[in-house]
Queue: 4 jobs
Job 1
Amino acid sequence: MELSIGEMALIAVAIVVLFGPDKLPQIARDLGAGVRKMRGAVEDIKTEIMKETDNPVSEIKREIEKVKDAAKDFNPMKDIQKDIVTEPSVTNEPLKLKPADDENYEGPVSR
C-alpha cells in the first residue's frame, strides 16, 4: 500500500485533531509495538509453514534415495547366471548336443 505525501499529511492532521497533541506520542508507541508484534507473528507463521512443508519433501527425498540404493544392488541376471553355472554341475554329466546342433555329427554310415 503506497501513500503519497499529501495523504500521509492528511492522516497526521486527522490524528492530531481527533486525539490531541498530548496523546500523539503514546499512539505512535502503541502503533509501533503493534506493527512489531504483527511482523513477529507473520515470521513465526512463515517459519512454521516452512517446517511443515519441508518435512514431507525431505521424507520423499529420503525414500527416493532408498529406492535408488535398492535398485543399484538389484541384478536379476546374477540369479540367472548362478542357475546356468550350477545346473550342469548338479547332474555331473556333460551336456549332450542334439545331432542338429553338433557340427561334427555325420549321421548314420551305411556299409
Note: Residues 21-86 form one domain.
Job 2
Amino acid sequence: MHNHDVPGPVRAIPALDRLDRRITAAMARFGVPLLRIALGTVFLWFGALKLIPGLSPAEGLAARTIEVLSLGIVPPAVSVPLLAIWECLIGIGLLTRIAIRATLLLLFVQMLGTLTPLLIFPAETFLQFPYAPTLEGQYIIKNAVLIAGAMVVGATVRGGGLVPEPSPDLPDARDGAASDTR
C-alpha cells in the first residue's frame, strides 16, 4: 500500500491536501541544499573559532584527543590549528559544493576523531557512563546528527534528490523500511 493510497484527515480535505503537497514539495526542493548550507556553516564557524586560541570550548578536549590518537607525536600547538583548517575546508567545501566528495570524506574522517573522546575520556564526557553525558559528551553525541546530515547530502552528489511523493508506477521506497516511519 502506498502513502498516497491511505485515507487520512489531510487527504480527506482537498484544501489541506493541496497545502500539504505544496509544503512537502518545498521541503523536498529546499531541504538538501539548506542541510548542506547548515552543515557548511557549522563546520566553518566551529573551525574558525579554533583558529583563535581560547575561543573554542572544544579546543582543549580536541587537543588532548589528537595528542592521544597520535601517541603524543602531534602537540596541541600543531593539532588545534590543523583541525581548525580541516574544519574550515569542510565548511567551505559544503558551502561552495567544490570537491564535494573530497569534502564529505574529510568530514567523515573528522567525525571519527570527534567521537573518540567518548571512549578515551569517559570521565570527561559522561557523568555516568554510558547514559548521562556531560556537556562535552552532549556536544560530541550531537555529531550523530551531523553524520546523518552529511549522509543525506552525500546521497545526492550524483544528481539525485528528495521526492515529495512516490511514483504510482514504482513501489514506495518506505515499504522496505517500515520501522523508520515511527
Note: Strands lie at 126-128, 132-133.
Job 3
Amino acid sequence: MTKLRNQGQVKTAEVYTKWITGKARPTQITPSGDWNIWLILAGRGWGKTLTGAYDALIYALKNPKSQVAVVTPTFGDLRRVAFTGISGVMSIVPPECLLEGRGQGYNHSASEIRLYNGSKLMGFSATEPDRLRGPQFHRAWCDELAAWRHPEAFDQLMFALRLGENPQCVITTTPKPQPLLQQLLKRDDVVTTRGTTFENADNLAESSLSLLKERYEGTTLGRQELYAEIIDKLDGALWSTQLIEKSRVKKLPDLQKIIVSIDPAVTSGANSDETGITVVGKTENSEYYVLDDQSGKMSPESWGRKAIEMFHKWDADYIVAEVNNGGDLVERLLKTIDSSVKYKSVVATRGKLVRAEPIASLYEQGRVHHMGVFPELESQMCTYTGERTRPSPDRLDALVWGLTELSKSRGETNWRIS
C-alpha cells in the first residue's frame, strides 16, 4: 500500500509538472486569486477539453478524498469526450494514479474515475438535472455549458458544490447567445478567459485547421465558433435572445396538434450539412410551442429513424418534410421504416429569409414558446441574416417548416408575395 501511495504521489507531481511547464499555454493554467467560477470562452480546437480535464484531475490528485463533478451536455459526451476522448481525463491520468482492483479505476457503468488517494471524478449529464440533487462536491468541471438543454442542471450543481474551504467551478465552452452565459459574464466572482482557435494552431493538424477555415472563416458563425464571440443578434437577423427568452416556458399546456418537421441533408459525410428535425405543436387558441430539436449530422437511415422516434414519442399528427432535394425518396424512406407513419411533403419556392419572416412575426407577438432551451437552434435563429453561409441553418429551416404548417392550417400566416 505504501509503495502504491508513493508511486501515485510521484506520478501526481509528474502530471502537474507536465501540464504547467510543458503542454499548457499561460491562458490554460488555472488562475490564482479569489474566484468561484473560471469561465473559459474559446473557439473550436483551442484546447478547452484538455484544460478542463487537467484542472479536474490535478485537483483530485492533489486533494485526497475529494469529489469532483464532471458535467457534460449528454452521457455520450461524458464518455466520448470528457472521460475517454482524445483530450479526456483517461488520456492524461497515469495508470499508477488509478485505484487498483476489479471494477475500480474507470467505472463505466457508474460514470466514475476513482483515484488511488480516495478521490473520485463523478460524471453527470445535464439532461438529468435531478441526479445532481443528492451528491456534494469540492470542485466541478462543466463542459460545453452553452449546449446544455436544461440550464437548471447548473443551478442544481451550484447547490451541490459546497464541500471544502473553497469549492470552485470551471466552465469550458464555445459561446452561444444563451442567457445563462450572459448572466455569468456579469458576475464579480467569475474570472473569464477568452481564446480563439488559432491560438492552438501549433497543436492542430493542418488539415483540421484548413477545414475549420474553409467552413467558418469570414462567416457570422465563424465569429462564434472560431473567435468565441457571443453574438446575441446581428443586424438583419429576425430573432434575438431576448425575443426568444421572454416567451420561454417550463410547463406544457394541452396541444391540439403536433408535427415533426424535417429539413433533410442531401449527403451524410463529414462536411455535410445537418438534417434539421424539430417537433412543434399548437394549442386550440393558436399558441405555438417548440417541443424538441433532434437535428444533427446523420445518414438518411438514421435521420429517418430519429424522425419516426419523435413522431411516436410526442404522439404527433404527422411528419412534414421539405423535398426539394429528396423528392419521393424522403417519403419512401420513412414508409420503409414505418409504413403507418403519416407524412406530408412541402416544396421551397422562396428564399429562407422570406419563409422565416411570418414565423418571426409570431415570435414578436409572443405566440411562440420554447419548451426549455435549444442552444444550437437558437444560435442559428439569432445569427442567420439571409446570407449564403456554411453550414446551412437546417435546424432553423425545420422549425420554420413546422410552424408554417401549423399556422397556415387556419390561415394565420400572412405570406409575403415575392
Note: The chain has two domains: 2-225, 241-408.
Job 4
Amino acid sequence: MKEMSKKQMPDAVSRHRNGDGNPLGANSEIARKLKQYYDELVSDRVPDRFAQLLSQLEQAEPAQKKD
C-alpha cells in the first residue's frame, strides 16, 4: 500500500472534508474487492447435493408443522 508523506496528509484530509476526494480513502479498494468477492459467491451455482438437501428440508418442514 502506498504511504502518504506528512506533506500529503493535510491535502488528503482537506479533500475529504471538502468532498472532493474519495470518502473511504484506502478502504475503497477493500470495499471494491469485498463487493467483487460477494458478487462472485452469489453468482456461483449451487451444488446438486446441496440443492437436494434443501429440497428434502423443505419437504420435511410442512410435515413437522402438521404435528
Note: The helical segments are 8-18, 27-43, 48-66.
